[in-house]
Amino acid sequence: MPSAAFVARLNEQIGHEYAAHQQYVAIAVHYDAETLPQLARFFYRQALEERDHAMMMVQYLLDADERAVVPGVAAPQVDFDDVVSPVALALAQEKRVSEQINALAALAREENDYSSEQFMQWFIKEQIEEVATMSDLLRVVERSQDNAMDIEDYLAREQLGDASEDPTAPHPAGAG
Ligand SMILES: [Fe+2]
Ligand SMILES: [Fe+2]
Questions:
Q1: What's the CA gap between 76 and 68, in Å, rounded?
Q2: How far away, in angstroms, is 24 Cα from ligand 2 center?
Q3: Alpha-carbon distance 66 to 60, whole Å?
């Protein structure tokens, strides 16, 4: 049985994952409106991944017979000055989430809640990948900020962030 402290913090994390989802949708729509379809596609896809993270946490709580609370979220940033700033914001967000995920794993360990500690392991690995992917993208957009078509060409060519099927991923609630 998960510890009560872990359940409370995991419910908070569901809110952070949905906030990340909303922020990535906002960034995707911004790029879409700027007619940068590859950048838009990248962030629409990242948004779906964040939603999946939230719903994996919901499924974990459902499986453990704990209360999962669907959160409201604060409004995301929707206005950006240039092509770089949304990616810089996204990288800062991923780094913050990594700290939150690590803190959740540490809390589970402190509470001798081994199943929750194990549940968090996939998210730790996932955050390492997401920070690396977003760091790569930030380098690309910084290098080509004066020619957004170079960024679009790079993304069309490199399939950055394309998730391959991961059989170790937890099951998201409602996903068939
Ligand atoms: Fe996430
Ligand atoms: Fe993420």
A1: 23
A2: 9
A3: 9
